[in-house]
Design a protein that fits this description.
Blueprint: E1 8-14, H1 19-35, E2 41-47, E3 59-60, H2 61-69, H3 73-89, E4 101-102, H4 106-117, H5 121-133, H6 142-151, H7 156-161, H8 166-181, E5 189-192, E6 196-199, H9 204-215
Parallel strand pairs: 1-2
Antiparallel strand pairs: 1-5, 3-4, 5-6
Helix pairs in contact: 1-9, 4-5, 4-8, 5-6
Length: 217
């Protein structure tokens, strides 16, 4: 008989502007819920910048996707429709719009790391994802970041002060380097117990199988 694991540590390497990351998280969340093991999961979000060289003002999303992946407007529209449908399955609203921009996410990751120390990491991460994808907000702007910090009960002034602290910036860069050196080059990637990993937004049943094996069910 397998020994039941006390806790399953999941490191979720992701970016707040990665649409497949929220789809993957929602499917993982559903798997955890269906297995009834929420109290046995320890989830920590890890930083990955899809576009580390993105200028502060960001770039128009359609233009960015076309430049980066060589996709056409028609292909991008199909992808948006697919994501909108997938999100809706799990109660997440993608609200793509003309002129939508993709921001630099360094500051967001610094604040998510701050929130980890306050026990509010998942709350802030999900709030920023919703702000970007559902509410048409620019999460690179300090006034928007302040709103979202307050929304999850964090001290916005204290948190935003981290953005001008070199050590906080270095901490994020160090974490990003760690995961890149571990071979992670795409997100979402979920690392289970610091050992096995799976990349991409997998079906709920795949997550259930992995979790069941780890938990000893």
């Amino acid at each position: 008989m397998m020994k039941m694991a006390e806790k399953i540590k999941i490191d979720m390497v992701s970016d707040v502007v990665c649409p497949w990351c929220i789809v993957g998280y929602k499917r993982l969340e559903k798997a955890i819920e269906e297995l009834g093991i929420k109290d046995q999961i320890e989830l920590e979000w890890q930083p990955f910048e899809l576009n580390p060289n993105m200028p502060k003002e960001g770039q128009e999303l359609q233009e960015h996707i076309s430049e980066k992946y060589g996709t056409s407007l028609e292909q991008n529209n199909r992808s948006r429709e697919q994501l909108t449908s997938l999100g809706a399955e799990f109660g997440f609203k993608f609200s793509f719009y003309d002129g939508m921009r993709i921001p630099n996410t360094k500051d967001a990751h610094i604040l998510i790391d701050y929130a980890l120390k306050q026990g509010k990491q998942t709350e802030l991460n999900l709030r920023l994802i919703s702000a970007h994808f559902s509410e048409q907000k620019d999460i690179s702007k300090s006034e928007i970041l302040a709103q979202e910090l307050k929304a999850v009960g964090l001290d916005a002034e204290e948190a935003l002060s981290c953005l001008s602290t070199p050590s906080a910036r270095q901490q994020i860069e160090s974490k990003e380097d760690f995961w890149k050196n571990a071979g992670i080059s795409a997100v979402p990637t979920m690392v289970f117990q610091g050992k096995s990993s799976i990349t991409g937004a997998q079906p709920v049943d795949v997550y259930k199988r992995i979790l069941s094996e780890l938990i000893g069910k």
